Amino acid sequence: MSHSSPACSRRTFLLGTATTFAGAFLAACGSNPPKEVEATEVPVGSAVILGSVIIAQPKEGEFVAYSSACPHQGQFITEVDGDVVTCTKHNSKFSIMDGSLISGPATSGLRDANLTQEGDTLSASVI
């Protein structure tokens, strides 16, 4: 009676599992795809939060983008009130005009994000 090797050896199975895990890990750790919004959806003198980015229009026709990660502990900023965005975790407040810190416990302003405009569509991604 001959003994044939299994179609999937333990070594092949472990190698395949490790490769799949590594690919999933790298995909999850890669850069976030750009977030998009129509320019008309960003209020003048205010901002919109799109997951990992904030897109603001401090003055009519002038757009800026910031990371929505609070510099204090990395929690996402979730609140917009006029020209101020707030991290509700510890109440740090930032100006949408230039990303500067208004009040802490954060000790620095918001990080800039990449912003591009193609026609009426704004795209932003974390640097």
Summed up, the domain count is 1
- CATH class descriptor: Mainly Beta
Structural class: alpha+beta
Approximate shape? globular
- Percent strand equals 35-45%
State the fourth-level CATH superfamily.
Answer: Rieske [2Fe-2S] iron-sulphur domain
CATH architecture: 3-layer Sandwich
Helix content: 10-25%
C-alpha-based Rg, rounded: 22 Å
What sequence of helices (H) and strands (E) makes up the elements?
HEEEEEEEEEE
Kindly, what is the distance between the CA atoms of the first and last residues, rounded to a whole number of angstroms? 63 Å
CATH topology: Rieske Iron-sulfur Protein
Major sheet size, sense and barrel closure: 4 strands, antiparallel
Mean pLDDT: 83
How many E-type strands? 10
Strand order of the largest sheet: 5-6-7-8
Q: Low-confidence runs (pLDDT<50, min 5 residues)?
A: 17-31
**Discrete helix count:** 1
Overall description:
By secondary structure, the protein is an alpha+beta fold. The chain has one domain: 3-layer Sandwich (Rieske Iron-sulfur Protein), CATH 2.102.10.10. Helices cover 16% and strands 38% of the residues. The protein has one helix and ten strands, in the order H-E-E-E-E-E-E-E-E-E-E. The protein has one helix at 10-29; strands spanning 35-38, 46-50, 53-59, 62-67, 79-81, 84-87, 92-95, 101-103, 113-118, 121-126. The protein has a four-stranded antiparallel sheet, with no helix packed on it. The chain has a three-stranded antiparallel sheet with strand order 1-10-9, with no helix packed on it. A hairpin with a 2-residue loop joins strand 3 (53-59) and strand 4. The longest helix has 20 residues, at 10-29. It is globular. It starts with 9 loop residues before the first helix and ends with a strand.
